[in-house]
Amino acid sequence: MKSCPKNRHLIHLSQNWSEALKTGLVGSSSEIAEQCGLTSGRVRQIVRLSGIDPRIAGFLTSLKGKAALKGFSETRIRFIVSLPDEKQVSRFEEEFGVRLPS
To answer: Considering the entire predicted model, what is its pTM?
Structure first.
């Protein structure tokens, strides 16, 4: 099972694991957890990040390096994922002071 690329946002790992679950490459979050040495709860927490709006995911995947990632913490992103789809982009832009392409 893949790990998160160094100096990249956790959204990469979230997308990878989500796709592995959808396609049947792995049977469950417990299987991923066992392969990666995490709890299944932590795996599910990471996979839930894949529910973020694609424009936000695109922005986060474009970030490279510690300086670019600074401030885009998992905790703050997790809150945005919990919002209804139609509110995610506006809240992300407000929270982080960025404008995403339409």
So the answer is: 0.85
